[in-house]
Amino acid sequence: MGILSSIVTGTAQTRTTTHPPRMGATHQFSTDPLSGFMYNAIGQQSATGEFITPDIAMHVGVVSACVRVLAESVATTSLHAFERLPDGSKKRLPDDDPLEILIAQQPNATQSAYEYWETKMAYASLRGLGISEIVPGVRGAASELKPIHPDRVTPVRDPDGTTNFRILPIKDEPFRTLLQDEVFFLRDMSPDSVTGFPRVAFSRDTIGLARAAERFGGSFFSNSAQPSGQLTTPNRISELTAQQLSDSWKRAHGANKQQGTAVLWDGMKFEPISFTNKQSQFLESRKFSVVEICRIFRVPPHLVQDLDRAILNNITGLTIQFVTYTLMKWFRLIEAAIQRDLIINRPNVFAEFQVQSLMRGDPATRAAYYESGLRNQWLVPNEVRKFENLDPLEGGDETVLQPTEPGPRESTAPVPEPDQDAAIISQDIAQRLAKVEHSRLQTRAAKAADDPDRFLTWGTKELDRLRDHTIAALAPFVLMRVPFGGYDPNAVAASIVADGVVNLTAYTNGGVPDSGARAAAINERILEGIVTNDN
User: Fold this and answer.
1) Which tens digit of pLDDT belongs to each residue from 86-107?
2) How far apart are CA 115 and CA 121, in angstroms?
3) Which of 147, 182, 361, 484 is a Cys-bridge partner for 365, taking CB atoms 3.0 to 4.6 Å apart?
4) For 373-383, what is the mean pLDDT?
5) What is the Cα–Cα distance from 418 to 426, expressed in whole angstroms?
6) Tell me, what's the pLDDT at 414?
7) pTM of the prediction?
8) Which has the closest alpha carbon to 297: 203, 190, 194, 210?
9) How does pLDDT run across 131-140, given as a tens digit for each residue?
10) Any domain includes 88
11) Are residues 263 and 398 in the same domain?
């Protein structure tokens, strides 16, 4: 018997809750602010004895993190309405189109598009159903989308095959039944094509174990688990004396006084009987729960800050896999739901998420991808700039022509001097780099004011360590200059670091260099890199 057995049996819980039988299910009323209503979902008791509902599950840190990752990822991805043209291409609908307003700008009077999709995804990923009432109005039959809490909704299949939704009222509202044509709904993988897949209910044992471990940990430490042991004495003492001794010990060493000095008398001894969390594998159990719950929601552990198995070389690949195997399911589900519920008598209109930004990878990979596209003429310069959210260039819609003989690559697109975009981005990067450099050097210079040589040695090493940071900051120029001969961030970073080493002496003897002048010098180096590559 150890901590794990205590977790399962609940002996270390600070409170117990009894529920009526019927497979541990009950209808529990709640004032939990996470629920938003004075009721809670039907829940079930897990194998650990923990009663699990969606709202209780959200109190488990990794469940909350997974739901937020899914909801925020979908909400931050651009969703727009398009029209399919006769030649097979597509054209985005204007901003004042009712469908574009509804899904991309203002779904209802109180929520922005981001807030609406975040809420809907949180409902669907946690409860298996995300439902909104379609409200007609000034913009037509679908003027607003008003979310309804899934715990208020009971889907019912009619004999004609349609699904209607019975709505539990709030306060003095009457019971309502909304027809399928009156709702816009998302349904996670359904076991019966009517209800959604409630991940919390089907995984209640896994979540219950994580919940029990958290509660046990809280109880363990709140009950002054250190020190823990027994007082022994060779002399016989009465029950009253033993109780008084116990109370006295708690007053002296309980609560936040665990590190106090114990004073014992009359041959009394303190014998520790506690065990460490390491010995009982408590921490390992909690780590395993993180991975198990991530599996439930198909979220890579590194996205919920579990970096045990993540390294810089594989995070980009893991993130792209997350988009491909997790988010893409939700994107297609939402697009199909919009087509089914919100688009009427417009056969060539559809909604689509713009996932290119999520699939871009790291700067070096994107640069190689763009260069291949330009070299093989399946991309033009302005398409590259569009992918990177940059303004188009005049003449940038023409393909890059490849030379027939070795030599400089020719292009019908112009090779401009540093343009306004480049100047603005360069200034911003230079100011950020100068700020980071100045902050680190100034603090260290103050500590080593009496030893300038030591500071110069440290400063040189620190600037060299900042080289990778500088190269990463120059990524926008790597991408901007692909159509025009590329950009060498390593050479530019080397020149910036070399200038910084020369500038180190300005920090000695109590000096405070002008960070603005340093930013201007860095900016000059960045722009020199553009000119050098253009020539």
Assistant:
1) 988 889 999 999 999 999 999 9
2) 10
3) 361
4) 82
5) 10
6) 46
7) 0.60
8) 203
9) 999 999 888 8
10) no
11) no
